[in-house]
Amino acid sequence: NVKYDYLIVGSGLFGSVFAYEANKAGKKCLVIDRRNHSGGNVHCQNLEGINVHSYGAHIFHTDSLQIWKYVNQFADFNHYINSPLALSEGKLYNLPFNMNTFYQLWGVKTPSEARSIIEAEVNSSNFKTPANLEEQALSLVGESIYKKFIQHYTKKQWGRDASCLPAFIIKRLPLRYTYNNNYFNDRYQGIPIGGYNLVVNKMLQNIELRLSHDFFKDRSFFESLAEKIVFTGKIDEFYQYQYGKLEYRSLKFEHEIHDIQDYQGNAVVNYCDLTAAFTRIIEHKHFEFGTQKSTVITKEYAINESLNSEPYYPINDTKNMKILKRYQCLADKESNVIFGGRLAEYRYYDMHQVIASALKKASDEQWK
Ligand code: FDA
């Protein structure tokens, strides 16, 4: 009766990489997904001939040559470099915080001039152990940068004042004393030519895939199908929320088609003030150097989780981490279930990290 070696719940990057590797090793896999498309959160929809990132902007970056070569098997990548802008009090600034930003803020032209302003501000904040996110940010970057770029943006992101948020949310706020607007420090970066769907479709091309199938709607049936389960959904849902629900911050996306060639001249513009309710506007064609006649933009809003919203950012505070530990104890006892990916591990993963993790879990199997 057992028809498959692996039932893979979720066709996001974790599930798709695992399925690809298992299939290559001659294992029979069934991939199911509760959504009506594969790819999980890297999925794109085609609007006006533009790949629109349905679940938020996705820029591939990695420092690992192995992971870079791995993804390049499935698509060629373009030379997109992420250089976001920030709009604050009517003016545009370069991100990440670098000499261009400091010049725009204070007119300073040399790293030593910028350093002395920032050091003076940081020293005057004088927090030995920051008690909240506001104090943490002030002690890392000083008052000017905090007020212009962090204070209100954070409030929109988390729905609470920075002074009421835990300091651990911001561990580092890198300051770059060169004129370099490349957001990432990684050696390799780009967007797959043809879009992320192409990558995932190639991974899954020889594998049975059932879309719009929810594991929990017919759990015992699905469990009976395979020797092992690779579960990439929510770990608390897997255990019927018996220790409580793990909390997430969610997002709302509003896509708009505009009958002009270029809306904002850049893929990503952050909106730092409270006057705009959204946190950023993404103009998707710029990820691909698109030349279409029209353009598609997405306004991104950070919202509380509700029944219909997607879980995006895990809230890794003490309360949730305690709950997670209890679920992990149950998971450790499972001999036929592999938990992987952002929902099953309840952690923020970048794409290169989730691919590395799936490759590791696949190699741990040794395809016995
Ligand atoms: P993912 O969520 O993609 O897949 C899980 C799948 O399981 C989903 O398709 C879901 O429908 C399915 N599923 C769940 N429960 C199920 C059930 N019961 N039955 C059947 N199916 C079920 N990374 C990066 O490197 N660069 C970037 O720029 C970004 N940008 C970015 C923006 C935003 C807003 C977010 C939230 C995240 C990013 N990321 C990112 C991270 C990136 O999205 C992430 O690394 C991967 O999508 C994670 O892939 P997973 O397979 O783990 O989860």
TrEMBL record:
One Gene Ontology CC term in the entry: cytosol
Domain UDP-galactopyranose mutase C-terminal stretches: 148-348
Similarity comment text for this entry: Belongs to the UDP-galactopyranose/dTDP-fucopyranose mutase family.
InterPro entries: UDP-GALP_mutase, UDP-GalPyranose_mutase_C
GO molecular function, one term: flavin adenine dinucleotide binding
Pfam families, per the entry: GLF (PF03275), NAD_binding_8 (PF13450)
Keyword terms of this UniProt record: FAD, Flavoprotein, Isomerase
Cofactor dependency: FAD
Name by which UniProt lists this protein: UDP-galactopyranose mutase
